[in-house]
Records
---
Amino acid sequence: MKPAVKFIHTADLHLGSRLQLNTDNEREDTYKEAVYNSFKKIIDDAIDENVHFVLIAGDVFDNEARSVKATRFFKNQCERLNNNNIDMFLINGNHDPYRMDGELLELPDNVKICDSEEVSLFEVKKEDKLIARILGQSYRGKAESRKMYTYYTTPDQSVYNIGLLHTQLDPNNTNYVPVSKNDLMDNDHIDYWALGHIHDKRIINDHIPYIIYPGIPQGRDIGETGPGGYFLINLEPENTYYQFKEVSEYTFKRIELNLSNLPEATLTELHYYLQDELEELYSKLDKDVKGYILRIILKGRTELYEVLRENDEEAINDLLLNVRSHFKNKSPSFWIDNIIDHTSKKIPNIEEIMTEDPFIEEFNSFLHSLKEDNKERKKLKEKMGEIWNPAVDKENQDPKEFQVTKAEFEELFAQAKDEIIQEIIERRDL
Ligand SMILES: [Mn+2]
């Protein structure tokens, strides 16, 4: 029987980076250490749980250069593990590629960094008995097209073999190790794939071979909504389990509010509505963290549309300051980072108009064909050029390309359709 192993799997610490939000310097200080503190909690847990080892699947540091502060902090945390006889195994990712001349500050002996030129294989021993093997290969530079996982081979299956890999898990993406889920499943040397790179937690395969992304321990902007954490893993015949443990201090949240059914379309009404909705949300939130950072998106067709746009969005700013002050002294903190106005003009029911108006009906079916009919799409692309690219790769964005996800595209498309129909109706009325 394979020996049981208990370990922590984390990735994408991005030490040296900060939370991105709209706030003054005074408040910013409260967020400054969040990225560091979340990693410190992981190390606390590693010691409390007395794990066999800690795995980091790339991007310990936010940038290639590594700051002295971040390196010093990391070293200190590694030393805490060392004092408790816990080893750490890591690979370098696209944000912190392998340094041939070693890290900025020398790390203690318990830290094993996988090589960038070939696959490293480490044997984990307990009381001189082999209990697991760890394999991994680091990034050589900011992008990595080598299919290193094909060389993750082990002498036998007498113990659990664990593979570290920093990847987008997309066979067509040559920047971050092109590989598919099936490619990983087909490598029968590995029992657990400890992945990194994608910043939200994902369980890609929940049995052997496990394929797991722990996500970023502390999200840094509204694109990294939380809570963040790591996985505590126990591999053991008949008793394997995994648990997601939250460690983020601050959680980013996106809230959408539809204003189309407000009984009265006034600013006062909106103010109370917003306050009530947020109070209700707040009452349901986990209170075991330092705070929440919110982005509020106002949606729906409403007569408030014009009011909200008057005087350089003065109404929105006023609303923002008011809700901020309402939630000022909460613990956990509740920071409304911004309010985004995506409302639209109130118009007669589009569905109704569409069935009554042959011109609009035709326009609508034309739009439908643009979306669904490949031939029409091709024609449009020839005329207009490639105006959107559905492949979202935040790490490697071309500013000339307008990159949106499928859901964002659907929403934009629906919005554009509404705006055009609205315009047609208005001009006709004139
Ligand atoms: Mn990362």
---
Amino acid sequence: MTATEPTYRGRARIAEPGEGIGPDELALATRNHGMPLEALRYDVTPPGLHYVLTHYDIPAVDPATWSLELGGAVTRSLRLTLDELRSRPAVTSRVLLECAGNGRARYEPRPVSQPWLLEAVGTAEWTGTPLAPLLEEAGIAAGAVDVVFTGADHGVERGVEQDYARGLPLAEAMRPEVLLVWAMNGAPLPPQHGAPLRLLVPGWYGMAHVKWLTRVEVLDRPFDGFQNAVAYRLKVGAGDPGEPVTRIAPRALLTPPGWPDFMTRERFLRPGPVLLTGRAWSGRAPVTAVEVSTDGGATWSAAELAPADPAHPFAWRSWSFAWTAEPGSSELVARATDAEGGQPTEQVWNRQGIANNLVQRVPVTVLG
Ligand SMILES: Nc1nc2c(c(=O)[nH]1)N[C@H]1C(S)=C(S)[C@@H](COP(=O)(O)O)O[C@H]1N2
Ligand SMILES: [Mo]
């Protein structure tokens, strides 16, 4: 290696038309697993079936010596051990998480990164303590605008060496639903989900829920770190500033009906009555309707949507649709709508492959 060669080579790339998934994307896909869609049947995703997305490595964190620092533009900085956090008022909240990159590999052309199809989602019962009272105890300075959350994980991304860190507008950080979380589904957080402590920002895409949290810093200026200023921006041109990625757009998914072919994942059913079921969610407004098409989107019918559960406003909702399967090929499609609109049936492309809530299409063969 000569001195003029750059040390770090990673760069953003869009796949060539028709280019298949490469070894770099395959390596990411084997580390970062999705939720098998049959797990949509559970209200709460069982341990191990929740999706995982980790930019760098799962860091080694010793919970016995770990502590959380809360500082920056505050009257007095705080340092809290895990025991001190756990002795504070605890809340358990059922919250859906979805990676902002869910659907990326369905874009044409495909932005080269973690190649999610539709499985980067899960719903867990998270236990932790609200963040807002801690920020209030520290005393937020007048003029504070952002709160930055930093993880213990370290890596390099498109040539920029960094600790994973995300800024959140102060008003969002102060929402009562925002938690510092130490348990998932009643058990201590597993290493891959951020042990010993992670942030939970209900309604926001996954990147905001910082894992392996070590530091909370109040800023009197907008955070300009990589994960806010460069990554997680909705933009088409490489030079566009783009819009920041925030809340989860609406989506409905079908619990895969019938049975799959091992290799192609094509699905088969027997003719007759079939109850199609699935889940729908949105992080920006309550879901108002789910519609189903059994003819590839030519005609749509209203599905039965479970009533909103006031105990779990940030969880997914179940829906069902009674179908009579006739022999032959069909394409099943589902789409969710919230107060701000519905899912697109044509792709709305962006160069980071973010927030692709294009409707899911499930081709099925009904046997004769
Ligand atoms: N410290 C840290 N926090 C992180 C990440 C990360 O790489 N490092 N990935 C984020 C992204 S992009 C997502 S989608 C969620 C995934 O959370 P999960 O793995 O618990 O499902 O964690 C977020 N928090
Ligand atoms: Mo993500």
